[in-house]
UniProtKB/TrEMBL annotation:
Keywords: Carbohydrate metabolism, Hydrolase. It catalyses: beta-D-fructose 1,6-bisphosphate + H2O = beta-D-fructose 6-phosphate + phosphate. The lineage of its organism: Eukaryota, Viridiplantae, Streptophyta, Embryophyta, Tracheophyta. It comes from Coptis chinensis. Residues 257-380 form the Fructose-1-6-bisphosphatase class 1 C-terminal domain. PANTHER family: FRUCTOSE-1,6-BISPHOSPHATASE-RELATED, FRUCTOSE-BISPHOSPHATASE. This is fructose-bisphosphatase. Residues 71-253 form the Fructose-1-6-bisphosphatase class I N-terminal domain. Belongs to the FBPase class 1 family. HAMAP family: FBPase_class1. CDD domains: FBPase. One of its GO terms (molecular function) is fructose 1,6-bisphosphate 1-phosphatase activity. GO terms for cellular component: cytosol.
């Protein structure tokens, strides 16, 4: 008996190859659910009373942000609808057995795309960037997109009310080892007072808004589950993808990071490059001699979204003490989420969201986590690593 096999059509681009990799709806499963799947491209807002956040209600993401939930506004609902659709496509690409073929077909042409302040992009970074850009164009709601994968922001349309900053696929260097990856994004209002400026200038200035001006931010974790974690300024909420229906379902309403955890997350192979203050803090907490009289454990994935997600749920502190992570599309969105969950985001000296970006790919140290852990960490003073700021991994 001949065993059927799957094959890639040679004349398809990587983006086209994965455009339909989604599980079909299971009609039998749908009969047992308390919610109804929605068209992710054309959300329907059904007027109802404000919904509760009970886990028994099984609210979808689009229900939750619509008129029956947080009511974030029709324009933002449309944008998030297209953004969650893009992330479902990325999740499918990341999980596909064929993603290694993208690397073989595209790796040779990536060297020339690297700017001086950017990491060398991986093939799936480029595909993920194309997926998000395409979805934002189709939404009609985004004026400009600033991405880790582009040297300069991309102006999309003059009439879009929003600005999106994004790291399309964080942690992609770990993709071949099936380690969790993620998408990070932040959403701002377009600065209409800049509309008279040349396109390149207004695109840049719109993208360099302070994190304190964010109206929404989120990440999508691609792991054993695909989780869409988002805040619109009134708490942090996480939705898990139901693969039988294609809906993101509310599973973690109103996340509150514990005031103190028992986990620190950092690459402590770099211990001898750290400043004295950071070494003293780590030595103290892992020996149980800190303000919390229990020994801390180290948990480090080297995937920012995954390390932050664990910290958000269990508490503690996740950090990269060197000038490595990007203020605009990594530190600002994640700090916004941390603060909305009762935590903090800091560069080791002060609040991330108070910083004014001066360059699109501006780097800085980043510390995220429980408020009491963050306060204790900063009390050691010198925690920013200045020796050997970059490593080839």
């Amino acid at each position: 008996m001949q065993i059927p096999t799957l094959s890639l059509t040679s004349n398809l681009t990587p983006l086209q190859t994965f455009s339909h990799f989604f599980p079909p709806t299971n009609s039998l499963s749908l009969q047992k659910l308390h919610y109804h799947p929605q068209n992710t491209c054309s959300p329907t807002i059904r007027p109802k009373n404000k919904m509760s956040t009970s886990l028994n209600s099984f609210h979808t993401l689009l229900d939750y942000i619509g008129k029956e939930g947080e009511d974030v506004g029709d324009d933002l609902v449309v944008l998030v609808s297209h953004l969650q659709y893009a992330c479902k496509r990325i999740a499918a690409v990341v999980a596909s057995p064929f993603n290694s073929l993208i690397g073989k077909e595209n790796e040779s042409g990536l060297g020339s795309l690297v700017g001086g302040e950017r990491d060398k992009p991986k093939p799936l970074d480029i595909v993920s960037n194309e997926i998000i850009l395409s979805s934002l164009r189709n939404s009609g709601k985004v004026a400009v997109m600033a991405s880790e994968e582009d040297d300069v922001p991309v102006w999309i349309t003059d009439n879009g009310p929003f600005v999106v900053v994004t790291d399309p696929l964080d942690g992609s260097r770990n993709i071949d080892a099936s380690i969790p990856t993620g998408t990070i994004f932040g959403i701002y209002n377009r600065l209409m007072e800049l509309d008279h400026l040349p396109t390149e200038e207004k695109a840049q200035l719109n993208s360099l808004q302070s994190g304190s001006r964010l109206i929404a931010a989120g990440y999508v974790l691609y792991s054993s589950a695909t989780i869409f974690c988002v805040s619109f300024g009134s708490g942090t909420h996480a939705f898990t993808l139901d693969h039988t229906t294609g809906d993101f379902v509310l599973t973690h309403p109103s996340i509150k990071v514990p005031s103190r955890g028992q986990i620190y997350s950092v690459n402590d192979a770099r211990y001898f490059d750290w400043p004295e203050g950071l070494r003293r803090y780590i030595d103290t907490v892992r020996q149980g001699n800190g303000k919390y009289p229990k020994k801390y454990s180290a948990r480090y994935i080297c995937s920012l979204v995954a390390d932050f997600h664990r910290t958000l749920i269990y508490g503690g502190v996740a950090m990269n003490p060197r000038d490595h992570l990007r203020l605009v599309y990594e530190a600002n969105p994640l700090s916004f989420l941390a603060e909305q969950a009762g935590g903090r985001g800091s560069d080791g000296k002060g609040r991330i969201l108070s910083l004014q970006p001066v360059k699109l790919h501006q780097r800085l140290p980043l510390f995220l986590g429980s408020p009491e852990d963050m306060e204790e960490l900063e009390s050691y003073g010198d925690v920013q690593q200045k020796i050997n700021p970059g490593y080839e991994v």
